[in-house]
Amino acid sequence: MASARDGTLAGASDGDGDAFAAKTLARTFDGARHGFVAATRCRGAAACASSCVEAAPRSFVADATTGKARWIERDDFGDASADETSALAYAEWCASERCPEKCIAFVTRRQREFMLEVLENDDGASGVDAFLRELVETAEYVNGREAGRRRARERDE
Q: What is the pTM of this model?
């Protein structure tokens, strides 16, 4: 896997294309049900009055070293208890809406992997937080458009 040090990020453009591009999303959209916590902005579970770790303990955990919230990667996205109308999904949504730093976003698996790679390659540069904010905003925009297209196609069928 390439790193930011050699000027590339492998997750940005692998064999399937850019994880944030509309053409790629049309092929690989998975419902944007994967959580991403921007650790650069998170206050930490203990210091947060609206802790996502407490609000949705099946979805978020406090990192053992930093104390900041982290999404728990699960394989139950096909499970009815984890669909977008479930109590779990509602708890996740409430946690993200109540986050005082607005550091929780729901993205596709590939977008999440790319953003985690950005965090891992963070060398302390101040631009990382701004770059992550831009990626989250881009993901929310393109994912919303793709979800809307899919809903419209389902209604038409």
A: 0.74
